[in-house]
Write a structure and sequence with these properties.
Radius of gyration of chain A: 24 Å
CATH superfamily of the largest domain in chain B: Periplasmic binding protein-like II
Number of helices of chain B: 19
CATH architecture of the largest domain in chain B: 3-Layer(aba) Sandwich
Largest sheet of chain A: none
Number of strands of chain A: 0
Distance between the termini of chain B: 59 Å
Radius of gyration of chain B: 28 Å
Strand content of chain A: under 5%
Order of helices and strands of chain A: HHHHHHHHHHHHH
Structural class of chain A: mainly alpha
CATH topology of chain A: MetI-like fold
Shape of chain B: globular
Helix content of chain B: 40-55%
Largest sheet of chain B: 8 strands, mixed
Helix content of chain A: over 70%
CATH superfamily of chain A: MetI-like
Number of strands of chain B: 18
Oligomer: heterodimer
CATH topology of the largest domain in chain B: D-Maltodextrin-Binding Protein, domain 2
Number of domains of chain A: 1
Largest interface: A-B, 45 and 43 residues
Distance between the termini of chain A: 53 Å
CATH class of the largest domain in chain B: Alpha Beta
CATH class of chain A: Mainly Alpha
CATH architecture of chain A: Orthogonal Bundle
C-alpha cells in the first residue's frame, strides 16, 4: 500500500513514525499509569496480595476522615505542601527575575554566570540534598560554623520542627533558580528594544520601565513559570525523603509532603489503593490550581 | 492517514499491555530465532522506479524444557549475610545437583520496595528473607504460604528452636523459620573507660550504674560540644526496642497484653518512669545527642561514644568498619524490678505463593529451607555473620557462651522477648515522634508517651478488627 503514496505522503508518514516514539513513551510511561492509578484508587490494593477487591470511594472517604483530624499525617502533608508552594514559588520567581534582569544588563562573562546558576538544576537532586543535609549539620556543619564564627547563635535547621521546612524549601528554591533565570532571560530577549526607547523618550524612569514595559510584556513567561514551579513544589518529594531522618518527613511530620506520604502509604504499608487515591486528589488539586493560575494571571498586552 | 496513525497507536498500546501482562514461564525457556530475508520490492517514486529491499523478519520460537528446578532466594544486601548464604547455596547445590538456587540481593533500603514491585510483575523469590515484624503484613497479603506441617512440625519448632521463633506463628500456623536470631546487649568502649578513670573490664550492670557511668564518661570541649559522649539515645536505631521490650519490664510494666491486643506502655507508673528515665539522657544529664548525619552507631565506631546498646549483628560491621576498636559486650543492665530481659529479633525465611504454585518448586524450596535451618548451617552463620543460632542446641554450645563478644548475646537468649508488631515501622515512628516531641518541642514526656500509645493502639485496633 505504501508504494501508491506520493513522496509528500511518504515523508509525512516518516514524520509520524518518528513522532510515534515519544508518543509511545507518553502513552506507556505517563498517561497509561495515570489512568491505571485511577483504577487502583477505587480498590483495596494490597500490593503483595493477588486479590484487589473493588471498594468504591472508600479510600477517598478515609482520606477525608483523616484530613479532618488536625493531628493526622495527611493533614500535615497537605498543609506542608501548600507551605512549600506559597513560600517557594514567589520567592523563587522574584529572585530569578532580579538575577535575570541583572544578567540581561551585563555584557561580559554572561555565559559563565548563566552556567553557575544553571549547574544546580542539572545536578542530581539526591546528591544536592545530601550535601545540604551535611551543610545544615548542627555543630560541625559549614553553615553553623559560619554562624558561630560571626558570633551568631547556632541553629538546628533540619532538626528543628520550626525551621526544617524552611531549610528544605531554601534548597529547592536555590536548585530551581537556574531554570527560572534562563526562561526569564529568554523572555526578556523577546521584548523589542523600541518599547524601552519610546518609553525613555516619554521620560519614564527605571522603575516605570520595569513596571509598565518589562513586567506586562513578560506576562506569558511569568504565567508559564508560575504554573510550572507550582507543580514542581506541589510534587516535592526527593529533597524531603533525602534530607529527613529515615526519609520520614520529620521532625514530627514538619516537612512531610503529600507525595512522600503517598509513597509511604503505598510502599511502606502496602496500601496502594489509598496511595493512588491521594494521587488522584493531588492531581485534581494541581489541575484546579493550574487552571486558576492560567485564568487569573494571563493578561493580553498590546502596545 | 489519520486512521492509519490511530490504528498504529492502538496496536502499540495493545502490544505494550500484552507484553506487560504476560507472565514469564520459569521452566520453559523460549529461544527466539530471527531469520532475516531480503525481498526486493518495487517502489514508484514520482514516475521513477526504484527497487528497494525490504527485510522480512520471521521469528521462530523454540521451546526447550530445562532439566531440574531453579528457585530464587532473595535477601537484602549485607556483606556477611550474602557471603554466608553463597556458601550455603554452594554446599546445597553440591548435594542436590538437580536444584539450582538464584541468590538475589537488594540494598536494605530498597528491599521491601523490590519485593512489592516484583509481585505485580509476576517475578520474585520462592524463598524470601523477611524481618519477623513484617509477618502480619505479608501473611495478610497472602504473599507467604504456611510451612508444610509434615516437614516443619510445630512441635519440633517449639521444642528445638529458641522461643523467640514462636513470633513466627500467626493464625495458629508457622509461616517462616529463621537460621539465626539476635539479642540486644550493651557495648562499651574500653579505652574511653580507662580515660575516664573507670575499670575497663567492669561495664555497668544496673540502670543506676549506667546513668552514673554515662555522666562520668561524657567529655565536653571548650565550646561546650561533645568530645566524648557517654550515651546517646538513637531512637531510630535500637533505643525504641530498649524502651519497649526491656525498660518497661525492668520498671515493672509488661509492654503489651498477653493477647497482643493492648499497648500497655503507659498502663502504670512504671511504664512512664521507664520512658522518663530514657528521655533524661538528653534533657537532663546531657550525655550525648544523636546527629542527623551520622547516628550514634557511627560515633561508637569512631570512639566518640562510650556506651551503646545494639544487636549482635553489629559485631560484624564493627569488625569491618572499625577493626581496631577496643570494646566489650555485656548483658543488658538490670533495672529496679530485677527482671532479666532483653529484646530478641530475627530475620526469617518464608515460602512465597510463587513457590507454592508448582509442587516441584515447592519441594525444592522446602528442601532448601530445611537445609539452611540445620545445626551445621547455623554454625556457619554464627561464624560468618555473628548472629546467634536459632536452634537451642546450637545456641547453648559452651564455646559460644564463652566467646568474649558473642557470649553476652547468647547468654541472654533464654529471656529474650520478640515484640509482636502489627507494623514495625509505624510502631517505631510513634516512639521516634514521641522522643522528638520531648527533645525538640519540650513536650511533657508523659503526654508524648500517651500520644505514642494512642497511635500504636490505633494500628493494633485496626489490625485486630479484621482478625
Amino acid at each position: 500500500m505504501f508504494k501508491k503514496l506520493s513522496l509528500r505522503r511518504r515523508q509525512q508518514l516518516w514524520a509520524y513514525a518518528f513522532i510515534l516514539i515519544p508518543l509511545f513513551f507518553f502513552l506507556a510511561i505517563r498517561i497509561g499509569p495515570t489512568l491505571f492509578a485511577l483504577n487502583v484508587s477505587v480498590r483495596e490494593w494490597n500490593i503483595l496480595s493477588p486479590e484487589k477487591p473493588f471498594v468504591g470511594l472508600a479510600n477517598f472517604e478515609r482520606i477525608w476522615q483523616d484530613f479532618q483530624n488536625p493531628k493526622s499525617v495527611v493533614r500535615r502533608a497537605f498543609q506542608n505542601t501548600f507551605s512549600y508552594v506559597i513560600i517557594g514559588v514567589p520567592t523563587q520567581l522574584v529572585l530569578a527575575l532580579a538575577i535575570a534582569l541583572m544578567l540581561d544588563r551585563i555584557t561580559r562573562l554572561v555565559s559563565l554566570f548563566r552556567a553557575i546558576y544553571f549547574i544546580p538544576f542539572v545536578t542530581s537532586t539526591v546528591a544536592i540534598s545530601w550535601v545540604w543535609r551535611w551543610m545544615y549539620q548542627p555543630r560541625f556543619g559549614p553553615i553553623n560554623l559560619l554562624l558561630s564564627f560571626l558570633g551568631l547563635p547556632e541553629q538546628n535547621f533540619l532538626r528543628d520542627p520550626d525551621q526544617a521546612l524552611l531549610s528544605i524549601v531554601a534548597v529547592a528554591i536555590w536548585q530551581g533558580l537556574g531554570f527560572a533565570i534562563i526562561i526569564f532571560l529568554a523572555g526578556l530577549k523577546q521584548i523589542p528594544q523600541m518599547y524601552y526607547e519610546a518609553a525613555r523618550i516619554d521620560g519614564a524612569n527605571r522603575w516605570q520601565l520595569l513596571r509598565r514595559v518589562t513586567l506586562p510584556l513578560l506576562n506569558p513567561t511569568i504565567v508559564y513559570l508560575v504554573v510550572l514551579q507550582s507543580i514542581r513544589f506541589l510534587r516535592m518529594f526527593t529533597q524531603v525523603i533525602t534530607m529527613t531522618r529515615q526519609g520520614d518527613g520529620g521532625p514530627l511530620n514538619s516537612t512531610v509532603t503529600v507525595v512522600l506520604h503517598m509513597y509511604r502509604e503505598g510502599f511502606g504499608r502496602y496500601k496502594m489503593g489509598s496511595a493512588a487515591a491521594l494521587m488522584v486528589v493531588l492531581f485534581l488539586i494541581i489541575m484546579m490550581i493550574t487552571l486558576a493560575q492560567m485564568r487569573l494571571l494571563t493578561r493580553r498586552v498590546e502596545y | 492517514m489519520r486512521k492509519l496513525v490511530s490504528l498504529l497507536l492502538v496496536v502499540i498500546a495493545l502490544t505494550s499491555f500484552v507484553v506487560a501482562c504476560a507472565a514469564p514461564t520459569p521452566e520453559v525457556i523460549e529461544k527466539e530465532v530471527v531469520v532475516e530475508k531480503e525481498v526486493p520490492v518495487t517502489v514508484e517514486v514520482d514516475k521513477e522506479v526504484i527497487v528497494e529491499k525490504e527485510v522480512v523478519r520471521t521469528v521462530i520460537v523454540e521451546k526447550e524444557v530445562e532439566k531440574g528446578v531453579t528457585i530464587e532466594y532473595w535477601q537484602y544486601f549485607f556483606d556477611a549475610r550474602v557471603d554466608a548464604m553463597n556458601r550455603l547455596i554452594q554446599q546445597f547445590e553440591a548435594e542436590n545437583p538437580d536444584i539450582h538456587i538464584i541468590h538475589t540481593n537488594f540494598p536494605y533500603a530498597d528491599y521491601r520496595d523490590k519485593i512489592a514491585a516484583s509481585v505485580p510483575a509476576g517475578v520474585g523469590p520462592d524463598i524470601a528473607t523477611l524481618y519477623y515484624g513484617w509477618m502480619p503484613l505479608w501473611v495478610d497479603s497472602g504473599y507467604l504460604v504456611p510451612l508444610p506441617e509434615d516437614e516443619f512440625p510445630p512441635s519440633m519448632i517449639e521444642s528445638e528452636f529458641s522461643p523467640l521463633v514462636q513470633a513466627g506463628k500467626f493464625d495458629g500456623k508457622y509461616w517462616a523459620i529463621p537460621t539465626a536470631v539476635r539479642t540486644l546487649a550493651l557495648f562499651w568502649n574500653k579505652d574511653l573507660f580507662e580515660a575516664a578513670g573507670l575499670d575497663p573490664e567492669k561495664p555497668p550492670t544496673t540502670l543506676d550504674e549506667f546513668v552514673e557511668y554515662a555522666k562520668k564518661l561524657t567529655k565536653l570541649d571548650a565550646n561546650g560540644d561533645y568530645e566524648v559522649m557517654g550515651y546517646a539515645v538513637e531512637m531510630n536505631g535500637q533505643a525504641h526496642h530498649w524502651y519497649r521490650e526491656i525498660l518497661t519490664r525492668q520498671f515493672g510494666q509488661v509492654p503489651q497484653s498477653e493477647d497482643q491486643r493492648k499497648i500497655q506502655w503507659n498502663a502504670s507508673e512504671g511504664g512512664y518512669e521507664a520512658w522518663e528515665w530514657l528521655c533524661k539522657f538528653e534533657t537532663e544529664y546531657k550525655t550525648g545527642t544523636n546527629d542527623l548525619f551520622d547516628g550514634a552507631t557511627q560515633a561508637f565506631y569512631q570512639g566518640k561514644l562510650a556506651l551503646h546498646i545494639d544487636g549482635s549483628f553489629r559485631l560484624g560491621s564493627i569488625a569491618k568498619n572499625a577493626p581496631d576498636l577496643n570494646f566489650g559486650v555485656a548483658p543488658m543492665p538490670i533495672g529496679p524490678s530485677g527482671e532479666l530481659t532483653t529484646f530478641g529479633s530475627f530475620w526469617t525465611h518464608g515460602l512465597t505463593n510463587k513457590a507454592a504454585s508448582d509442587p516441584k518448586r515447592l519441594e525444592a524450596a522446602v528442601k532448601f529451607l530445611k537445609f539452611i535451618t540445620t545445626d551445621e548451617a547455623m554454625a556457619l552463620w554464627v561464624d560468618k555473620v555473628g548472629e546467634l543460632p536459632a536452634r537451642l542446641e546450637a545456641a547453648s554450645d559452651p564455646d559460644l557462651l564463652a566467646d568474649p563478644k558473642l557470649g553476652a548475646f547468647a547468654q541472654q537468649l533464654p529471656y529474650a522477648y520478640a515484640t509482636f508488631f502489627v507494623n514495625e515501622s509505624d510502631d517505631r515512628q510513634a516512639l521516634m515522634d514521641a522522643y522528638d516531641a520531648v527533645q525538640l518541642t519540650g513536650e511533657n514526656p508523659r503526654a508524648a508517651l500517651d500520644e505514642a500509645v494512642e497511635k500504636v493502639q490505633a494500628l493494633f485496633d485496626e489490625f485486630w478488627a479484621t482478625h
